[in-house]
């Protein structure tokens, strides 16, 4: 991970006040939602997706002027104008070969760590899914969350 420029940062769970990055994001989210609600009179839930999309599309100094969306998907998010002709192809700031190399490095890192942990614990490090599908790095997945009553 260090070879990819990734630094792990640990913080106290359930205590966002102790993590300045989370606290700043929560502040930006709350400020944007408040402005949206005051402007339209609708509830904050109606604006959550749009605000999240806007915040993920803001360039960050810590990401070298790129957006969170760019770092995750390797391309800029296209936001069509309201009066525009429709969706156009977004320009890709990364070379596809660089993206493939990064994904291969991540896959190798996962395999190295899973084989080491499996050898030490005797447990196979594969996720269990009802369909037998095993997610790999680079796969797009959607998380489904249910609220316990």
Which keywords apply here?
single chain, mainly alpha, RNaseH-like_sf
Radius of gyration: 20 Å
The global form is globular
SSE ordering: HHHH
Number of separate strands: 0
Give the class from helix and strand content and strand pairing. mainly alpha
As a percent range, the share of helical residues equals 40-55%
**What profile does the largest beta sheet have?**
none
Could you report the average pLDDT, rounded to the nearest whole number?
70
Instruction: Indicate the low-confidence ranges by residue numbers.
Output: 82-92
User: How many H/I helices?
Assistant: 4
* N→C terminal distance: 39 Å
| Proportion of strand residues | under 5%
Question: Overview of this structure, please?
Answer:
By secondary structure, this protein is mainly alpha-helical. It is 42% helix and 0% strand. It has helices spanning 20-40, 48-56, 68-73, 96-121. It is globular. It comes from Pleurodeles waltl. Residues 111-130 are annotated as: Disordered. InterPro entries: Integrase_cat-core (IPR001584), RNaseH-like_sf (IPR012337), RNaseH_sf (IPR036397).
